[in-house]
Design brief:
- With about 160 residues, the chain is an alpha/beta fold.
- The chain has a single domain, classed as Rossmann fold (3-Layer(aba) Sandwich).
- It is built from three helices and seven strands.
- Helix 2 links the parallel strand 4 and strand 5.
């Protein structure tokens, strides 16, 4: 388990960026002190503005639940933890056309079948500060395996 001790919140500019790109049932993972009314806000820290306390590496949701996932993981997430984190996001995102993964990170993760549609370099209000990458992934063409998985009873 990672405790992020969230003491930050998205500014209005970031809230608008994420809100504008969100579609359908939304998970806001690692929410810190940013609460979106349209999302299930999840964090491990009880001091966060959360709806549900959960570990980002072991989410209490079934597979293929969310149309959109918003996440700002702990800054400098350890490299050996990144694969577990991306697997868990991939597990709970719906594998259907238009599903979106929206991130604020300092690295570019890989999600099978998802295309990186938009990348923005975000510095925030201070100069000489670490940057973040705002990433918008979208599922445009689910693979044949995902189609078969979703439609196995009809086939």
């Amino acid at each position: 388990m990672i405790s992020t001790h969230p003491k930050w919140t998205f500014n209005i500019e970031l809230k608008k960026w994420f809100s504008k790109r969100t579609r359908g049932k939304t998970l806001h993972l690692c929410c810190g002190h940013t609460h979106f009314d349209f999302a299930v806000n999840v964090d491990i820290d009880l001091n966060a503005s959360l709806d549900l306390r959960a570990d980002m590496f072991n989410l209490p949701f079934r597979n293929d639940v969310f149309d959109t996932i918003i996440c700002d993981p702990p800054y400098r997430l350890a490299i050996h933890k990144r694969t577990s984190w991306t697997r868990e996001i991939y597990r709970v995102i719906k594998k259907q056309k238009g599903s979106r993964i929206l991130l604020k990170t300092d690295f570019i993760p890989y999600f099978p079948d998802f295309t990186l549609k938009e990348l923005v370099i975000y510095q925030g209000a201070r100069y000489w500060t670490p940057i973040s990458l705002l990433l918008h992934y979208e599922l445009n063409n689910p693979t044949l395996l995902n189609y078969i998985h979703k439609n196995k009873e009809a086939l």
